[in-house]
Amino acid sequence: MFNSSKTLVFLFLSFFIPKLLRANDEIKINDRVNSVYQAIVRIEVVSERGSNGRMQKSGSTGSGVIIDQSGLVVTNHHVAGKATRLTCRFYDGEEIGADLLGADALTDLAVLRLRLQDRPANSKPIRTAVFGDSDAVKVGDPCFAMGSPAGLSQSVTRGIISNLALISNRSSSFRLDGENVGELVRWLGHDAVIFPGNSGGPLVNQRGEIIGINEVAIASLGGAIPSNLAKEISSELSENGFIERSWTGLECQPILKEIETGILVSGVIENSPAEEAGFLPGDLISHLNDKRVDAKIPEDLPPFHQIISSLPPGSEVRLTGFRENKKKTWRLITQKREPAYQPEKELKSWGLTVRDFTLLSSLESRRSSKNGVQVHSVAQGGPSYSAKPGLLNNDVITEVNGQTITQVDDLITVSQSLTKDKTVPVPILVQFERNLANYLTVIKIGPEAEEKRPLEAWKPWLGVSTQVLTNDLAEALGLDKTARGVRLSQVFPNTPAERADLRAGDLIFRIDGQLVQAYRPEDVEVFGNMIKQYRIDSKVIFEIWRDGKLLELQATLDKRPTPANELPEYEDKDLEYTVRELSFADRVFLRIPPDENGVLVENVESAGWASLAGLRQGDILLKVNQHPVLNIKAMERLMEKIHLEQPSQVTFFVQRGIHTLFLELEPEWDPS
User: Fold this and answer.
1) What is the percent of the chain with per-residue pLDDT over 70, rounded to a whole number?
2) Is 108 a catalytic residue?
3) For residue 73, with 0-12 CB atoms within 10 Å meaning exposed, 13-18 middle and 19 or more buried, which class applies?
4) d(C-alpha 421, C-alpha 424), whole Å
5) Which of the following is catalytic: 77, 78, 190, 376?
6) Torsion, CA 272, CA 278, CA 281, CA 287, rounded to 10
7) Does the model's pTM come out above 0.90?
8) Integer Cα distance of 370 and 415 in angstroms
């Protein structure tokens, strides 16, 4: 049996001393982590992507880390690679704009430069972080994931390194702009918790050095791009804006079970340097420029790809290995590697987004050259969609009105010349390819024809809402079950009904002595049709039932207010919203006083500049850049001036329900 006093001492020491040691350790680690924490930025991104025939805007947030005093920020391509506007927020809340210097989809890295010149002269120096050596990292090393999860303020989570060569399997291959990120990148796996928005933030060791750039979350594991690769790529992006790589056309995989060593050639792309060098599927590569290479598992392939891709284009590569167990040597001249896809562009008059071919995309499409324009997306209901036959995604436009189209710029030039000074759509003959077939179609491009809305004839109007006096309702009100008529459910203000002292709850049995034959739910139009038989300014006598008494009231019918579909509107095609005059019904149902001005937001295109700023259908637009919006004509004049001046910001003051708020639109104006 233990001595009780010794037992208590033992329990005390075993419980509290480790806690004290851990607390001291935490303090030391946090001191070092804080030096990097202050170099983290939250990145607010406005980007554009082609979809449904137009370039759609979207807003998102990510993370980045400042790596030098000139304001260079490293982040992910999937965070900022398609950005049209970037704003970075420091740890202390300061915000500053940034410019995208370059992005690389193949490694999912991007480099920004902060606009430090925009900071006040007395601003304190920015904090920076330094790259560590990712090759020195070991499984079990403590690490810290930093960033701005879900767009929140900067945060830090702690974990350990769990894997030095983490890749995604083929079924969940991580692709960006057509590029397989796993071809070159082996992530540092770790269990420091990361969430959406942490992307682009640094993974840091205990010495406060960047050992990775966080990129993905796979189940409970995080994956970070190793710092040595990130340092190399970010340096080249900051200098050149792009990464120059070599391409061979070799497709490789790990060796099969019956083979001992080497790298297996699984495929050879047609007309590639590898085909010219004589490679065939099934060849086994054992040496690259006399250096032994081996890939027993997929994780072994990225280093091989890195060696070849990092060579200057035009380099001669000596590869040795075996074909059918016989030794063989190949000499291969590398070629400059183009991106998998070119960025898409919008053709508004066509209702399309399109892009040029690259070497890789033309080969994948099995084309003999890069000539032609590839359809990226088609707007449903647009000119290209409505043609017979209509264009589809991946079709290739080759001719327009007999003129050869080799690239997107040709298509833009031809379209502009065909539609110049035209006020109506122009039919053009388009030749395009789909799979192996060649088609002709006629597409009407150019200004949209003005929509002519049929005007309804002026009609008499009483200014009420009614419900049918059904048999059940009549009986419940103590009337004869066979009673016919309508019940006034609402009397609108400043109307003939209000002036005649008609009230909500009145029952109307007769109009000028004629019985209102309404008693079934489907008789909802009976009362309105009887009113329509009169002329405007007609004096009409209504027989009503109120408080158990029959009354007769006379009303002089007025002209019906202009309905919403006949009111003037203004469509802003650049900022992508439509507004119209307020209707009588708008003022009634939205409780807008007659003396209050403004226009109603009738439509906001999804993923447009107005949508991105938060404008919603049903908002009442009261002011633009502090100028009151009196009506549609005033709105047009204000926006004409704004489109001419093209300011970086446009402020809308809107009413939304009982609330008002200011919205900032920050468009990228079309220089044309």
Assistant:
1) 92
2) yes
3) buried
4) 9
5) 78
6) -100
7) no
8) 21
